[in-house]
Amino acid sequence: MISSLPASILMVELPSGGLWPEGYTLHKGHTQESLNHATVAATTTGIIPPKKLLTQQWEQAIKRITDAKIDITFLPYPQELLSQDTPDYDGIFIRDVGMFVKGKWVKARFSVFERQLEADVFARLIQEKFQIDVIELPPDAYLECGEVFFLETPTGSYYFGGLGRSNKAGHDAVIHILKPDHVFLLESTGFHLDTTCAPLINPSGNLVAFMYAPALFSKKSIELLSTLNAPLITLNPEDTCGMEANLGSIAVNGLSLPGIFINAEEFSTPGVEAHISSFEIARSTSPLPYFHHAGGSYHCLTNEVRL
């Protein structure tokens, strides 16, 4: 969720034993398109992230965020996730488990059923820390919040929702509360919407562009995005999660705030970096390859606190 600079960014501390010490976990939602191909590739090649290097990447990412004058509120990595027979390390991706909506916390309902414990545990931690109510979604509603961008701008509010691991009922439940001025529910081949696209916000808080890779989106979604009253910046699939086994860099998965865009590497699509700079948006990058193998990057690792 994005508007003016948030009071804080929510992140999760690394567990003492590191992340994915026995390799990455495969996840898939209701559809074949919801398969996270990055984890398939990492599992197939037997990648296990060295604790020291992963920690260095993490610390460098924290420095990028704090250097941008963004405050971070850390939550402990929940013991409940580590004590499972197969420990769940995807809880580091705090974006997925829910979102702050009008001073409350909407708890995600995962179509990847084995990840639901993450949503349950973090909802309790957030409720206790911030003393706020938790909103439960209807039984037929699925919403993983890596599928959501919500922007409040001086000229109106925008809701972008992905239909990969989430469904219309899940988005409708949140839209009913937010009542955004503009709604874009989008079909893509990315397992989460934030691996395929990103908004750009200028220092005044206005939506000035929307970056996306048309090759990953349905014709209907491309037509819908053409109605957006902001320029569309076309990306090559290489700057997203990629297409099936042809993995991309997910450079698009960045922390996008007014006048700020932080991600793991520069865009390879010609002209995109210059386009971003033209909006007076401060750019910062720091590599996160061992998080990329799990399918996540800066947007996945952060969640705006909106109280």
From TrEMBL:
Superkingdom, according to UniProt? Answer: Bacteria
Family matches, as Gene3D superfamilies: L-arginine/glycine Amidinotransferase, Chain A
| Protein name, per record | Amidinotransferase
